[in-house]
Amino acid sequence: MLKFFKLKKKIIILLLAITILGAVFRFYDFFDLIFFEIDQARDYKLINNVIENGLDEFPLLGPLAGGTAFRLGSIYYIPALVMSYFFGVSPYALVILEVLFSVLTIPLFFIFLREFFNQKVSLYLTAIFSVSLFLVEYAHFSWNPNPIPFFFILALYAALKYSQKDSNKILWISILALGMGVVMQLHAVTLIGVPLIVLIYFVVLKNKITLKHLAVALGIWVVLFSPWIINDILTKGENLSEFKKATISKGERDEHPSLGKSVFMNAFNYTRYYSILLTSQNDIKELVRVESSKSLRELIGYNISEKEFKINLLKGFLGMIFVAGGVLLLILKFVYLKKADKDNTAIGKRNFLILIIVAQIIFGLLLFPLALKVDSRYFFPVVIMPFIMLGLAFSLIEDKFNNGKKIVLVLFIFLFFYNILGTSNWLKLAESYSLKYEKNKEFILEPYYIVTMKQWNQIVDKIVQISDEHKGNLYVQSSPYHIRPLLYLLEIDKKKPVRVMDTKNLDSNGMYFFLRESDDIKTGDALPESVAKRFDIANKYDFGSVTLVQMKIKEGQEASAQKKFSFEKDSILPRCYELEYFMEAREKCMVGDIGYLFGKNK
Questions:
Q1: Residue 553 phi, psi dihedral angles, 5° rounding
Q2: Which helix (H) or strand (E) holds 393?
Q3: Three-state DSSP class for 62?
Q4: SS3 of residue 536 by DSSP
Q5: 3-class DSSP state for residue 515?
Q6: Nearest-CA neighbor of 19 among 169, 166, 130, 133?
Q7: What is the pLDDT of residue 520?
Q8: What is the pLDDT of residues 157-210, one digit of tens each?
Q9: Is the pTM higher than 0.70?
Q10: DSSP secondary structure code for residue 565 in this structure
Q11: Which of 19, 31, 184, 443 shows the smallest number of beta carbons within 10 Å?
Q12: Beta-sheet pairing, 474-477 with 499-500
């Protein structure tokens, strides 16, 4: 008993150390290395609006599901609202609780792994998971997919516990409903996939949920999804209608590729991102796509036309073999446990594998139509899968080789430090964004998205410094990825009235700024042609990966003095229950509109 207590205490200390290490990577240089992009700026303005005007302005619906008019749930906004209420509206308030969820996912993952693996293997996997670049990088900005791993693991763990004999059924059905209710509002893929996984899991186990327990789950879901429900009552089912359209449109592939090409690209995508998750390295790079081709032969032919592409494709094929081996291990282990003794331990491990296999199949099917346009965020629901496959390989080596435990320890040490190397190099890269332009080094996020808060603070401070010396109006322009952050940081953070530049209506007393990727500046393309016709460059201010261009109106260009700006007010749109539905009106479905259902707004 004493030996067990010491071991248990040792495991807790090691788990705490692993969690702290993961937290260090996620909070490293927190105030400078947080990213602030187009979606974060949108949420920043939304939360500021709620803080300034009251809870009536809190939206009933959340972010748009990428590329569609369907909106997710608004539960994602609540942590940012809570933090902003207590500490003030800032980009940091938006992200802090998401980073904490990312840290808390580490011990939760260990607890989940212990349902199948021994303590050492569980610790090995959790340690690699804690320093994986994919999870660290996404923790550096606020985005609705970020909390998916925590709540998805929580839901899976609760499903396992509920299916066990003599468990506290009420407790675990409540946690299951909570985890599902949150994760389903974070991404369209989890909205469809998670309920399917849980349903199929219980059907396969023939595990009946009592009416009492079902009522508890439904009660929690009604509370969590009540904003959705109320919104569709107010808009006569418009969001549900958009969900149907989005499901159809997401299933339509622009290229109409062959089945072989779709299968290959799905296998390659999973292999690439599973490799990134386990190594934090860009060892298997994205394929050079042949967007117009329908055949797999053209895709492979193009990627073996040059030596660099050929080597990358070879790495991809080798990676696919390893991923296929991991899937095979899942199936073989399940078959073995199915034939094993029917004690509680074997049944629990078998159920664990059923849940994992079902989850991998469901998400594999959901991502299949997106093979040619998949983004890294789509792999958030399956981030645990490669670690579990690795754990099965570790367990097999321990069981089948004489020095198996030593071999596993060596493999763990290699992968652990390989991940630390990759993540540390990325942190150095992120720090360098404010110093110089780094091209094509990002392999998880798109490189042109990223501007750190250190850069943003320097940029807006420079604009404010210059504009304070001038009495004219302030105008800015940039790429679609950077214009919102630039506008909202000036408006909300610096309290500077600002407008997007209009080249057709020039202000003779205006101060004009253009934010440009530094790569464009270096190639001589400092200003777009439409802007260069109207403006000369007065000054350039280098902020590393981006450059701020101060402009002056060219001589001979027609310009007239404009009225002094005040803060721009949103145009008044019909409320979401008025007139016919149109896209912009959806933004106006707020908590305050609920009164319409009770005749207060009529």
A1: -65, 135
A2: helix 385-400
A3: strand
A4: strand
A5: strand
A6: 130
A7: 77
A8: 999 999 998 889 999 999 999 999 999 999 999 999 999 999 999 999 988 889
A9: yes
A10: P
A11: 31
A12: parallel
